[in-house]
Write a structure and sequence with these properties.
The structure holds 2 protein chains of 2 kinds. By secondary structure, chain A is an alpha+beta fold. Chain A has 5 helices and 3 strands, in the order αβββαααα. Chain A starts with 15 loop residues before the first helix and ends in an 8-residue tail after the last helix. Chain A is globular, with a radius of gyration of 15 Å. Chain A is 39% helix and 17% strand. A 7-stranded mixed sheet of chain B has the order 4-10-9-8-7-5-6, sandwiched between helices. In chain B, strands 13-14-17-16 form a 4-stranded antiparallel sheet, covered by helices on one side. A two-stranded antiparallel ribbon of chain B has the order 1-2. Classes of the chains: A alpha+beta, B alpha/beta.
């Protein structure tokens, strides 16, 4: 049976992009030289992660992270790193707000058109909105990222 | 002998008819509910008892002089009799109703802990406790100068009895507060031996029976323990009602926990005196309807019988362990010799939360996370596990659905 199993019923949340980034994250490294770092912790499920940032003037030059968590949280951290590298700090905060909206509701109709392209990259994670208990898995890396931008050591929980 | 003449044959199909919720489909698939250890489903008799009380006789209890209050008081107090019989308590006054097991342990930690235990004495817990049997004792330690000792467990997930006894050697231990069945590993602790050892060293014993009472006949006189706590909602009863059983002479020595109505004998501004046990510990309007529901739940499990429930569950557990052993990449935590129907496992390449979500997509409800037992997770060297747990209504086919579902999850993550 499993040979012909196409897993269609399991794919709405776990799209190939998520499985791929969850399995082989590209940015899962601790940066040796960094300007900011912060931890994120979801005490309800035990997911833990730390994000390191290297800045170039007012933009995020590099992102690295270490995560112990589910495929959703690791994939989200990796897609986040990929998407915010080279992006200005203010712009990154705006993108976080848009992403959080998308994770909670599945879309961000009121979002700035300038965010369309990066949001599309993050869109494979929009499926979490149907799983209220999993929304935090997707947003935890972002909370750590914003905490690092704010100069905080730890992300405050939602 | 056929089924008709053999009352001990467990007819799970008929049992399932008693639980309205099990007829549901989830995401278009039949519900496979394997999360009873978190909270069990409710049989029709429990639902009906609570609804009937609200529709026909509901009023506040203990003080009313009218027909409705008298009827409701009788129905509520019948739950105390049922709980006393269930546990083979000496006397109904030894049954103190609380909100849940957590409430019962906090009551004990506060009242027995501050009122009877002396600064410098120690409380022993184990390395496989639920947070609700850790944190109240930490609070007591910090507020009252009590030492908190942790009895280790073996890699198999059993209490290390040699190390346990060693913790009691100096005679400072006033109370052993330990699980009777782990909510994570399913391990059943050797209660009689624990009590013998503790008593030999002058310590009292409290068991957290939140899980055990669902799976085993609890006889507090045979166990010879001093306190035993459990909660109604895991025993097919409603949420919001739990039990602290204690030896009467110990309950009488304990000061009140909360003050208020129902727990007093008389009140003046200068001084108040307390009601007799158990009412001394039951301040405020209690969970009346929940008590009535609990009575129905106790009657329900007594009618099925613990022997039949335990045999059914042992068969399910054996089947589940065999099926899970056949799923490559799945590792079951703990191999206790004596265990109940709770199985925690991890899966290679898949995090427990992903496992739970992907099982949920197939209509299978399991729990994932640290199960409110973070120190035990660290002891077993895992961050989180998935957990399948069984109830009277669980079928062998549901275990097969779990195993088949896990094979799909594994293949999905390949």
């Amino acid at each position: 049976m499993t040979q012909t199993d196409d897993f269609d019923d399991l794919r709405d949340l776990y799209q190939e992009v998520i499985l791929d980034h969850g399995r082989r994250p590209r940015h899962a490294v601790r940066l040796e030289a960094f300007d900011a770092t912060a931890k994120g912790d979801n005490p309800m499920c035990g997911d833990r992660l730390q994000v390191w940032l290297k800045f170039k003037t007012d933009a995020i030059d590099r992102v690295g992270f270490e995560a112990r968590g589910c495929a959703i949280s690791v994939a989200s951290a990796d897609l986040m790193a990929e998407t915010v590298q080279g992006r200005g700090k203010t712009d990154t905060r705006a993108l976080f707000a848009a992403f959080r909206e998308m994770a909670r509701t599945g879309a961000c109709p009121a979002c700035d058109a300038a965010l369309t392209e990066p949001l599309e990259r993050l869109a494979p994670l929009a499926g979490v909105h149907e799983y209220p208990s999993r929304v935090k898995c997707a947003t935890l890396p972002w909370h750590a990222l914003i905490a690092a931008l704010d100069g905080a050591k730890e992300a405050s929980s939602e | 002998m056929n089924d008709m003449t053999h009352p001990s044959v467990f007819d799970v199909a008929r049992i399932r008819e008693d639980f309205p919720i099990l007829k549901q489909t989830i995401r278009g698939k039949p519900l496979v509910f394997l999360d009873s250890a978190a909270s069990a489903q409710k049989p029709r008799v429990v639902i009906d008892a609570m609804v009937h009380a609200m529709e026909t006789q509901y009023a506040n209890i203990h003080r009313g002089l009218h027909w409705m209050s008298e009827r409701t008081t009788e129905a509520y107090e019948a739950a105390r009799d049922a709980a006393a019989t269930l546990m083979n308590a000496n006397d109904r006054s030894e049954i103190v109703f609380t909100g849940n097991s957590t409430g019962a342990i906090n009551l004990l930690a506060h009242s027995y802990g501050r009122g009877v235990l002396k600064r410098g004495q120690a409380v022993v817990i184990s390395d496989m406790e639920h947070h609700s049997n850790i944190v109240p004792w930490q609070l007591l330690r910090d507020a009252h100068g009590i030492e908190l000792r942790v009895a280790p467990i073996t890699d198999a997930g059993e209490l290390d009895m040699v190390a346990f006894e060693a913790l009691l050697q100096d005679g400072k231990v006033g109370l052993v507060a330990i699980t009777h069945m782990s909510n994570v590993l399913g391990s059943i602790t050797p209660a009689e031996r624990i009590v013998k050892i503790a008593h030999a060293h002058g310590a009292k014993v409290m068991f957290d029976g939140s899980q055990a009472i669902v799976h085993r006949k609890i006889d507090v006189r045979a166990l010879d323990c001093d306190f035993y706590v459990w909660t109604g909602h895991k025993l097919y009863g409603p949420t919001g009602i739990g039990v602290l059983w204690g030896r009467r002479e110990l309950l009488e020595r304990m000061p009140p926990f909360m003050g208020g109505g129902d727990m007093i004998s008389s009140v003046t501004y200068e001084q108040s005196t307390w009601a007799a046990v158990p009412h001394k510990f039951e301040a405020g309007t209690p969970a009346i309807l929940e008590g009535i529901g609990l009575k129905a739940a106790i009657d329900y499990v007594q009618a099925i019988g613990y022997d039949a429930m335990a045999a059914h569950e042992a068969s399910l557990t054996e089947h589940a362990l065999a099926r899970l052993a056949g799923v490559e990449g799945v590792r079951v935590l703990g191999q206790a010799q004596d265990r109940g129907g709770v199985i925690s496992f991890t899966m290679e390449k898949a995090h427990a939360h992903d496992v739970a979500t992907l099982l949920d997509r197939q209509g299978i409800a399991v729990r994932a996370g640290h199960h409110c037992a973070e120190p035990l997770m660290r002891r077993m060297h895992v961050d989180s596990t998935a957990r399948a747990s069984f109830g009277v209504y669980t079928t062998h086919a549901e275990i097969d659905a779990l195993a088949d579902g896990l094979i799909r999850v594994r293949d999905f993550f390949q």
